[in-house]
């Protein structure tokens, strides 16, 4: 089986969780053996992506996985939607050239950014389309459509779901959101969660941990960590607003904020009088992030909207206490008093309560941490997720063989 997987992001061009998802899934997905075929038929995956941050135009990862990067014009910030859609033509042209060498059995797209290319190729080739929806525009804006650009994105999200033979959602929350916003039938959507490659996480040496503790907690401070994109829906402003109450109860506490352009929240910290208790780290590498997980008392994810929350998985895999908003897919990953603590979204006092509970009940926190790490290993390995995806591929391709088009 030959699969064309189209993603706007792929390393080295990674903006959010989508690029990371595709990059970590595909090595496990490619080369999978198909069940019930009576042969050793394998899945061959060609990833077609944009080339905004360098990387070779063609890359052979292994026998079953190839990456093709296509140059695209810069995105116009004034007309974001139309410039993205027009850039899809570059992807279509490259895909057509690849298909001339050997046709594809299936097209798999990720989110609206490459929907135009996927839909165009579906109709030209009469090949089934699978769409993975990582989030929705309406969800990011708390159910609202604030602008014409948002309205255009919303319509494209509906179209790429409508055109799909099957849709992958990362959580029950995401499945229900698609059904509510776009009227997607429940049986058209399959839930396959995001995953994590625990083996690839960095094991931080004792010496490195000691250096980081000396840098950020020279006087034995308790450390809290926020990791994520610095956008409104990630709720960093809510966490900063919780800091005065946290410091009132536990004055020897410091918050580390990891994320590109995190310093834009410094004025808020200054306004609240907590700027001396917060380190805005800006962008950190995966290696540094993993080391930070190993030295902090808790990682806090105060999201207002989160279809899944892969950062919570990373923290849990690293053996870090997790406090997360009880919202979206996060509430399916982090269960209150079982493998972490959950808080009310957009509620600084709820975050302060959870931090106090964590600090004052260390034995219970240790047990939640142990349970969380075990669950990540058992339920969120990329091997299991790739197998579920391969089974969906096989089902869709078999259905296509028995369908007139």
Please tell me the overall pLDDT: 94
State the distance separating the first and last CA atoms. 19 Å
CATH architecture of the largest domain: 3-Layer(aba) Sandwich
Strand order of the largest sheet: 3-4-2-1-5-6-7-8
- Highest-level CATH class of the largest domain: Alpha Beta
| Low-confidence sequence ranges | none
User: What's the story with the biggest beta sheet?
Assistant: 8 strands, mixed
Radius of gyration: 22 Å
CATH topology of the largest domain: Rossmann fold
Fraction in helix:
40-55%
What count of helical segments does DSSP give? 15
Write a structural description.
The protein is an alpha/beta fold and about 400 residues long. It has two domains: about 1-195 and about 380-400, 3-Layer(aba) Sandwich (Rossmann fold); about 200-380, Glycogen Phosphorylase B (Rossmann fold, 3-Layer(aba) Sandwich), CATH 3.40.50. Helices cover about 45% and strands about 15% of the residues. The strands form two sheets. An eight-stranded mixed beta sheet has the order 3-4-2-1-5-6-7-8, with helices on both faces. The chain has a six-stranded parallel beta sheet with strand order 11-10-9-12-13-14, sandwiched between helices. Helix 11 (about 310-315) links the parallel strand 12 and strand 13. The mean pLDDT is about 95.
Write the topology of this structure.
Blueprint: E1 2-7, H1 17-29, E2 44-50, E3 58-62, E4 65-70, H2 80-101, E5 106-110, H3 115-125, E6 129-133, H4 137-140, H5 148-162, E7 166-169, H6 172-182, E8 189-191, H7 206-216, E9 222-227, H8 236-249, E10 253-258, H9 266-272, E11 278-282, H10 286-295, E12 298-301, H11 310-317, E13 322-325, H12 330-333, E14 341-343, H13 348-360, H14 362-379, H15 382-401
Parallel strand pairs: 1-2, 1-5, 2-4, 5-6, 6-7, 7-8, 9-10, 9-12, 10-11, 12-13, 13-14
Antiparallel strand pairs: 3-4
Helix pairs in contact: 1-15, 2-3, 3-5, 7-10, 8-13
